[in-house]
Amino acid sequence: MKYVYFFGAGKADGRGDMKESLGGKGAGLAEMMRIGLPVPAGFTISTEACDYYFKHGCKYPEELRAEVAKHLKHLEKLTKKKLGDAQDPLLVSVRSGSARSMPGMMETILNLGLNDKSVEGLARSTHNDRFAYDAYRRFVQMYSTVVIGLAKEELEDRLRALKNSLKVKDDTAVPAEAWRHLVSEYKAHYKQKTGKPFPEDPEEQLWGAIGAVFESWMGEKAVTYRRVEKITGLLGTAVNVVQMVFGNTGDNSGTGVCFTRDPSTGEKTFFGDFLINAQGEDVVAGIRTPMHLKEMAKLMPKVYRQLEGVRERLEKHYRDMQDMEFTVENGKLYMLQTRTGKRSPTAAFQMAVDMKNEGLIKLEEALERIKGEDVERLFYPVLDPTLPRQEFASRRITTGINAVPGAAVGKAVFTAGEAEAWAARGERVILVRRETSPEDVGGMFVAQGILTATGGKTSHAAVVARGWGKCCIVGAEKLEIDAEKKRMSSNGRVVSEGEWITLDGGDGSVYTGEIALVRPEPPKAFATLMKWADQVRKIGVRANADTPHDAKVALEMGAEGIGLCRTEHMFFKDFEHPEKSIERQQAIQEMILADTVDARRKALDKLLPFQRRDFIGLFEVMNGLPVVIRLIDPPLHEFLPKDPAKQEALAKDLGITRETILRRMEQLKEANPMLGLRGCRLCIIYPEILEMQVRAIIEAAIDCQKHGIKVIPEIMHPLTLDKKEMKILEVATRRVADDIISKAKVKLPYFVGTMIELPRAALLADEIAEVAEFFSFGTNDLTQTTMGLSRDDAGRFLPEYVDERKAAILPADPFQSIDVPGVGMLVEWGIKRGRATRPKLEVGICGEHGGEAESVKFCHRAGMDYVSATPFCVPIARLAAAQAVIEEKKRKRK
Ligand code: PEP
Ligand code: MG
Fold this sequence. Notes:
Elements: E1 4-8, E2 11-12, H1 19-34, E3 42-45, H2 47-55, H3 64-79, E4 82-83, E5 89-90, E6 92-98, E7 108-112, H4 118-126, H5 129-147, H6 152-166, H7 176-194, H8 202-217, H9 220-228, E8 237-243, E9 254-259, E10 271-276, H10 280-285, E11 291-292, H11 293-299, H12 301-318, E12 322-329, E13 332-340, H13 345-357, H14 363-368, H15 372-379, E14 382-383, H16 389-395, E15 396-399, E16 401-404, E17 407-413, H17 416-424, E18 429-433, H18 441-446, E19 449-452, H19 460-468, E20 471-474, E21 480-482, E22 487-490, E23 493-496, E24 500-504, E25 509-512, E26 517-518, H20 524-536, E27 540-544, H21 548-556, E28 562-566, H22 568-572, H23 581-593, H24 597-622, E29 626-630, H25 644-654, H26 658-668, H27 681-685, H28 687-706, E30 712-717, H29 723-744, E31 751-756, H30 759-763, H31 765-768, E32 774-777, H32 779-787, H33 798-802, H34 823-837, E33 842-845, H35 853-862, E34 866-869, H36 874-893
Helix pairs in contact: 4-5, 5-7, 6-7, 11-12, 13-15, 13-20, 15-36, 20-36, 21-24, 23-24, 24-28, 25-26, 28-29, 35-36
The structure holds phosphoenolpyruvate (PEP) and magnesium ion (MG).
């Protein structure tokens, strides 16, 4: 196996399309060399070597040393210099680079090959002592920290002390003698810490650096970055050993970073920074303030023109925005890196649309360029990126699972009731709970953001918050919440009710204080690109929405109907008149507490008008588009108040004792409520609930029809497991519906269908489809029941299951991205069997997966008719649906 790829003198072993093996940087260098751009010579050790290293207990492949030696010789021959030579030494940089760009996550060592002898040679050959010793101190510093792991701060402190003693600010003002002194100080420090002298042998230095780059692949930051960015399936990092060119030889030299377009706005302007008389790391580290490229154009017009030429050439060549690093050494330009540049979500849309319009890329490519996260991040407010990051670190209280991105600022409150009370006074609040339940929904609705100590990404808090596009952090396990004393604490820090906190749903951080937020405006390009996506996609996109307000947002986001209306959410909140919520809450609680059918019916009669009015609101907004309404689903105990004061108040209102409430709660208590009396089982046991809900739906539909609004209700039963069960529900549904329709003397088409949320239902889908007119896969529950993972608790340990350094059992959280091999198999089976019975069976998905790009692509492949996502995820689904078509075409071509 070949592990090392050479490039130099206009030729390269590798190519730009070999990113998997050579990493982005290695592939970019090889390609730039091939197309004749000025690139220093060097070689790339492939990612396969890194893969081998980690698979064999951190050992290199046997042949690697010989291969590296061979290519180093070649490099020495080409440059007519020798590594570590006492006269005119070759110096190299050793830099990481994986197939996907992970900026700043892995390591780099510059000026390698310097020692006490070669530094003298460098000084002589460049006639520049100051430069040579500056390079040397940088190398010793980088080697000590990156390869050996000594603390950076101690070395930085010494550098600062040196500059203070010299009364200079800039590194460029430090004379050679002082650098020489610093090098000996660094070396003494090295010896003291490691017990060994600093390595003088350049070969030892080289292998130390190669090892450090490999190791950085599994470093904490790199692993975290891959997890957050969902980067999987890579072999490792490549190592690029490249002849050093120097931007710090004097005022005719410099170094810079530039982008072929503006990475924040997407605008087609040359964007970048340049530092005179500096090495690359100075730009990144932000020690000195660099100049804009425009100024560089004035100072070095010839080099600038050449750089502009490179910009044009590379963007055309790669047909995408490039992020480039360059160095000017004594007036000569060298390109050190080119890679596809990272961009803000706004820029991603702008560039994709512009590049398509410029003819640089095709429409399909423009669609492929946008990631689900780009869409999501476009809409959420974020922490003001111009604020200094250091400030954040000292304010961090804790971190949890970043369930819904964006950011939120508000005063901490610890009960839903307080949240509502504070919000009614015009305060912005963050609701902090151990976990949330449906009775918290009012408080959740008025809160800016939600923070819970338990739960995962499909916990109640996360699902509800996502639906509203509200920042939410769950599973902040270190948080101790004392709702009674109205405070929380973590790491010894206490936050009491009313104190400001800020949530960053992007990374799950919780901060004290009020940090400024900005809400990005979706750019025009967003609408253009979404229109293109709709032209390409085949699968429909609906939304999960429970209220007219959500339905409106869903339409704005491009939804073509409602795929799931969770009717129980209506029991708790009057979204039109929040102050009247108490009426419906009491009615549902009265219904639950009733111990006779008559008493239950009486309570249900009170609920009927509320539900009917809510459905009318929903139908009005959707005006003719399909609306899937699911009957009651959660276990009843979730609707009863847990707070003693609220229990007391309820008892008083209903004219019963609190003891009666407690007794009823005790009766309803279940060891496994998720597997208990919930879903359609509620309507099997209490058919009067079904009667009320179906009545509300059908009466609302008839009312709308009379006002010229077209309605096609789809009545959906959750959690069915059997044809027999479904038949009972279907008969009951039709009996109520048909009776109302015939009495009203109208024609109203409606459908009766089911959710598929249990493996048994999927397995027996052919039988269920004899009764059900449509299926909607409830993949939240189907994942829970197929994998035997609690959707509310698994968040505690799933990170370990996913972490590539830990158990690495699953590639992703199955509650987020559908488990294609397992749950997916049941879905495919269910569709196939269902359609074997009923060829035109309408099939959709309404679990959280309907708004996640990879899962949407799966749904397309599985042949579903539509996906249904929370309103803010609708654009993600539209885009992913289009990408699925493009990917399918590519597969077929192959
Ligand atoms: C599901 O289980 O996927 C679903 C949509 O229902 P819920 O999340 O309300 O249980
Ligand atoms: Mg469900």
